Description:
B: FAD/NAD(P)-binding domain, 3 domains, 7-stranded mixed sheet, C: alpha/beta, Rossmann fold, 5-stranded parallel sheet, about 30% strand
Amino acid sequence: MEKRQEQERRALPDVYIDDILMSLKYFTDEQELHLAIIDEAVCQACENQPCIDFCPVGAYRPQDGRTVQIAVQSCIECGTCRVLCPYLNVSWKNPRGGFGVAYKFG
Amino acid sequence: MTESRLQYDVIIIGAGMAGSTAAAITARHGLKTALIERGQKPGGKNYFGGALYTHALLDIYPDFFEYRPPLERPVTESGFWFLSNDGVVKATVQGGKMANEPIDAYIALRAEFDAWWAQQAQQEGAFLIPKTLVVDVIREDGRVIGVQTDRPQGDVYAPVVIIAEGVNNLLTQKLGLIDHDIKPASAALAVKQLVSIPAKDINARLGLPDNEHGMAISVIGDVSMGMPGLGFLYTCTKALSLGVGVTLDALQETQIKPYELLQRYLEHPVIAPIIADGQLMEYGAHLIPEGGWKDMPRLYTDGALVAGDAASMVNALHWEGTNMAIVAGKQAALTVVEAHEKGDFSANTLSSYHSRLKETFVMKDLRQYRKMSRFLGTHPDFMDIYPAFLNDAMGMFFTGFGKPKRRLYRDILRSLTSRRPIVKVVGDLLSFGRAVMGM
Amino acid sequence: MTRRFWVFLEQTSGVLHPVAGELLGVACRLTTEIADELEEAGEEAIVEGVLVGHEVTDLAQQAMQFGAARVYVVDNPSCKHYLNRPYTEVLTTLVRKYKPEVFLIGATTLGRDLAGAVATSLGTGLTADCTRLEMGTARKSPKKLLLATRPAFGGNVIATIVCDDRQPQMATVRPRVFDMPPCATQVSGEVIHETVEITPDMLAAEVVEVIADEASRVDIEYADVIVSGGKGLGNPEGFQLIKELADELGGVVGASRAAVDGGWISYPHQVGQTGKTVRPKLYIAAGISGAIQHKVGMQDSDFILAINSDPNAPIFEVATVGIVGDLYDVIPTMIETLRARKGAAA
Amino acid sequence: MIHQLVSVKQVPDTTNIRIDPETGSLIRKGVPAILNPYDAHAVAAAAEWKQKLGGRITIITMGPSAAEDALRECIEMGADRGILISDRKFAGSDTLATSYVLAEAIRAIHAEDPLDLVLFGKQAIDGDTAQVGPGAAVRLGWPLVTYAVKIREIDPDTGYTLVERRTEAGVEVIKTPLPSVLTCEKEIAEIPYASLPQLIASLQYEPERWTAEEPVAYDTAQIGLKGSPTWVAKTGTPEQHQPGETIDVSEAGVKRAVEDVIDKMLANNSVVSILEG
């Protein structure tokens, strides 16, 4: 995409996503994780690690340099990571029935 | 195990707009209906702008408004706000056709509305099974004869299954109705904050006379930072829904964090005062299938039908999806009823779902707008240059006092051509027109 | 007539729980709030303590130092270790005999176990976990009543509760909610020994074993320095950094409910409405947004430092000083700086 | 075979409760009613022991009609019978009156089908009082074990149970005769994931309804407002503190911000007393 510089764009603000996530209700499944990285080595070799940016709840977090970790308990099951991971390295399924995000308003 | 197996006339997967509508209709026709929902309650997994369209609701329940549905405000003002980086040009409509009763659209919150919508299906006789995830279909001789859930002893049987599983259509894919997962170019990620603001402040800030008036606004320009996408603003009774949707491929490319994009929108000098002192009630995000026509799966197979987001039934330009889901849910249900009458659930019989849909606006619109998402993907400037120009132009026009008007017009034109050569402008307009008309 | 204000003197293994001192201080203040009524009616008010256990009479002296004018002691081998039924029996019997007007009990594990049982036995009202106590008028009561204020609904609401037609008016108060009163050196007071019969059927439940448990031993209520972490740590490992800072400051580790609910750290570390109330001299909140339910548990600390990358986080509303920034930058720098300064001083 | 009873409460989910800035009252919208989480774990514990020893689980709850959902959730976890004790006459009951209502119901159930164990959650998340369980135990005259974290053993033959409870000092192991009353922490048991037939049975379950007259004839002087010695004199929102100053790292730099803050801390008498003392 061609970037235009002539008009100064407002910068992106820093957002502390964890505080925003306090507004959400989750039923956390203590026994089963519905989301996982298939092969950690693939993430370590991934150049841009776009998941750290595109995940709308910031569930993908850099860990010790190049490792990526998933904070599964904050996942809202949108599916973006499954679609956008450049190496399709995410094992994605829905949480077990009743678990996961429970929107109060929607 | 000698326990009798769980047998229904029809299983519907997902208690969203399409699923609960289908369940209401099949149950109304006397079919033993199981409506399976993975959330704690229907609506618990759903997140949208947004507005519901009266025509579709009334089609299912002609006396809909008498049931006291949990709706927020009616949409009495609608249109576009074109944001530059520090200003706005508004083009909205109110009064006139917008004021005709019944009002065409109502703002709603899905957690509450979907729960209520599913309750109506239960009243019709459908059996709602919440907190249960369907993980696969059960097949016999290639025909779908039931579903497998994630619970122990979790198989449920029916000669026909309506899949209304939503945008992440994993079952639809498993069934082979579509041969690929969602593509980055044909889905948008929408993020939204619901911000609580006293009703009187909403009315004062947005110029609404009372709580019985509301706005549905598409926001174009600065909000998407040049990505193909839109912002939105909807007025609930005591809260505002503000969000941004951008296509996944753009998101991937720009490496912008969606929640930062949203926050930037909320901090826009035009938006910030509207939500001043508001309290965050809920944040959320959802994918919107925007592939439309070209990403539509096959809609039926032996013993199964697909409806709603799972079948990519969304018109991205007009923010339509819930109404398409309702119409499709109804048509799928009528197809199932017909199949039961015939006692035949083969793809051949179920194909009438497709022909029924073709008679509705759903297929007509999806076909007409089939080129729209491609257009926006290939014309990112549309979201950026024109809104900025519009702000510039209007700004110059209304501050150009004491300036020779000929120079003013020349400046305005220059403001456009400096952004984009005039030939390209004409080209943009033409291809936009073609995309809308479906040519 | 004498209006009696009672405090339950909780002790374990012959050690008086500090909350007993705090409540004696409160009871003394409450009696001063009815001074006008007393004068008018020619009555007196007296603060008294109730001590139950075995070979604990010595503790009565301590209670007097904190303001008890009289201490009732029930010394019985059956009461050596706390058990609900014998203790309930003892307190119920004494209350019936002396008819106190107000009865305060610490909202410790023991106190909460006991208070509900005693109040029910007596058929009187009990307000749990009060954060404010005062004597005042309510409804048509001719006399001032105990106005017991407590948070409800996760701290979002505070409610003032009264009990007007039954006595005693009972309340439990969590440790550290009130200040410890000054400790007098010269005291005069009276010890009254009481006997209450404990029958074998009251001892049907027995403690057969006590397992000292690391998780239970976290004593954050009386710590001078607490460094707490919340969801903003991003992961459970973040608590190692919190621990490092706490160690540097000679403090202990606390946590927000979100971090505890997430399973990142055990419940005894939890500060807030459903955890512990703390009033350390220094409280550092790192990566804690500051939900009301957390703030009610720590807002009375002497000095609160909040570290959070969101400038709008509600925790800043109660902070003495706030740092807006990434805690993973701030805390290591802080540890380093503290060490450097210590080195320079040495 | 044992007969266990769990007393549960339906509560607003307080984790996300908010106050209407205009009226100062609780906003109920978007605040779902849930089974009190501690009670849910108590039911789960009962279900575990029913699996081990066989028998029945009876659930009671006092509340409005909507509390039927809480009972269904208990049936889903493995309970056999759910009783909703509901009557306008109970409105306004405080913890004393509530413990009376529940204890009398438990007594009636016990008379018909003797109980071995009665479980409560340690407290309800809306009121956090932790008084009803102990109150009911006193009224029944049965031994009470609060803050139970584990049921080690239930022996219907000898008539005893071994229960671990958490205190500030550690874990106490209590041996107590049956029937006893336990109030439970969440650790007492994991919530089970019901089978589909069990879930469906719970969805179709119609709880029994008891009133203030039937089958237990309650003494009207002991229920509702009349039977409640405590009443709420006033409610309000917590006071706002005066916010202190904030230093922004992005402006001051980490080093400066930290130095500044440490200086401020050391300027504070009570902090300096511990840091240097």
